[in-house]
Prior knowledge:
Layout: H1 2-22, H2 40-43, H3 51-56, E1 63-68, H4 72-75, H5 83-99, E2 104-107, H6 121-125, E3 130-131, H7 144-152, E4 157-162, H8 165-178, E5 182-186, H9 195-207, E6 211-213, H10 215-223, H11 231-241, H12 243-262
Parallel strand pairs: 1-2, 1-4, 2-3, 4-5, 5-6
Amino acid sequence: MKSLNNIKKTFLAFTAGASMLLQPVIVPSAAYAQEATSTLHLDGLSRTPTEAAKNALFDPNDAVLLLLDHQTGLFQSVNDISIEELRRNTVALAKIAEQANIPIFYTASEPDGSNGPIMDELPEAMPNAQYVARKGEISAWDNADFVAAVEATGRKTLLIAGVWTSVCVAFPALQAKAEGYDVFVVMDASGDVSKMASNAAMMRMANEGIVPVTTNSILSETQRTWNRPDAADWGVLYGEVSPGYHAVSESFNRAQEAAQAAE
Length: 263
């Protein structure tokens, strides 16, 4: 019995500590529920951001996600990020946009040629996305249909990821920025032939005011608060972006089950 009590105390101590980290993953109580609005990412904040503070972060209500050339043939030339990580982050990015109702447009460079088809799991992750075929253009921003699709949303903030970073991402990012869009490049959902190529591309884009970001920052910046009715859905996405976070969540849930069984 003494041994059982010690085990119980150990698990309770663990769950108390883990709860502080993972509390948001739990479905929120009715007291925190709120009606969905077009500014849901801000509705749960205890302080209304000033205009300057709002502009410091991107607005998901003004955003469009562009996924460019995530093709299996091109993946074989990527050397600055593991293909597993690239695929995982790209799928997570698509799911983030779907969760936040951010329009998604994707395209491929010569999908019937050596560049290969779009990765299999991507369309499944974004059922509301629109595919726009190109007519041989290397830069998606040189394709009239692609630009028209983006313009039709009326939104002016672009989140861009793709393969290669120095070409398929950089070219449209630079062109869109020059035409007045706010552009964020998701570096860990993009890949290039080398780290040098990726670094050079990012320096070139940053010099023009394009902002480098990562998938996890887009996730948190889009969500903004756990004080929202869909908090549990966002918690799942953190596990997809970070396998480590998912492992901690699993351990936390199992510890809770063991502690309850020991009572």
